[in-house]
Amino acid sequence: MNAKYDILIVGVGGQGTLLASRVLGKYALDMGFDVKLSEVHGMAQRGGSVMTYVRIGKNIASPIIDEGGADLILSFEKLEALRYRHYLKEGGHILYSTQEIMPMPVVTGAAEYPKGIEKELPGTGVDALALAIEAGNSKSANSVMLGALCKKLGFDREKFEAALISCIPQKTIDMNKKAFALGYAAA
Q1: Summary mean pLDDT of the chain
Q2: Residue boundaries of the structural domains of the chain
Q3: H/E element holding 52?
Q4: Residues 99-109: pLDDT tens digits?
Q5: Model pTM score
Q6: CATH code, 5-100+117-126+154-168
Q7: What is d(CA 4, CA 66) in angstroms, rounded to the nearest whole number?
């Protein structure tokens, strides 16, 4: 594990972005690093945008990541990756789910979902929804993305999976382990 990571996790309310930040934080602590988390969400319960700062390193003083300061953006929805790409530092990477969740202006017909988003994202797309369904439940898409993140950053797979298992309900462990493995393989 590197000496420092600034990771921005973004998505839509209900996608498990906050759980993902807790898993990442648990892993960092288990590996002996300091970690600071801060979440920002508006209408998250109504499908609004959610973002969480995760800063990992030695002696992290602030949980906030400045614009242009994120080493990696982990996005659970494609438009959210585009919305927050200005947080990415030069040479950074966006790891994003290809899932499209229509925001309210699109649902009401006041706007259209942008086309060609992938061309504007410096990163890797993962069909997390399809892999989550393959694992047994669409709600495990966050575990798919965590598996992809683990591989992308070269984290210890066994220890990262253990951090995931410690943060989820017992009855969902097998499904989430399968989703994690599918995401790891897809990255």
Answers
A1: 93
A2: 5-100+117-126+154-168
A3: strand 49-57
A4: 999 988 898 99
A5: 0.93
A6: 3.40.920.10
A7: 15
CA distance 162 to 9: 20
Query: Could you report the per-residue pLDDT of 129-184, keeping only the tens digit for each?
Result: 999 999 999 999 999 999 999 999 999 999 999 999 999 999 999 999 999 999 99
CA–CA separation, 186 and 152 (whole Å): 10
pLDDT of residue 27: 97
**Which stretches of the chain are DSSP H helices?**
17-30, 78-83, 104-107, 128-135, 141-153, 157-167, 173-186
End-to-end Cα separation, the chain, in angstroms: 18
- Angle separating helix axes 173-186 and 157-167, nearest 10 degrees: 140
Q: Which residues are CB-neighbours of 122 under 8 A, at least 6 positions away?
A: 85, 88, 92, 93, 94
Instruction: Tell me how crowded residue 92 is: count the other CB atoms within 10 A of its CB.
Output: 19
Alpha-carbon distance of 178 to 21, in angstroms, equals 19
Q: How far is CA 144 from the centre of its chain?
A: 9
